[in-house]
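ok so i was messing around last nite and threw this chain in just to see what happens. nothing serious, just curious
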Amino acid sequence: MIGLSVAIGRFVEALFWAIFRVAGSLAVAAVGGVLILLLSYVAIRWLLKRQ
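result:
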């Protein structure tokens, strides 16, 4: 019975860390996308102002 409890606990812990890993990578991708959009907006404004 104790072995089953430990196995369930380890499964829940692994699931918890997997969810956090996916959420972290999605957050990094979202922040990176926003930064790319912001930099491209600034570059386009700078190029249009130069003309």
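not much to say yet. DSSP finds one helix and no strands in the chain.
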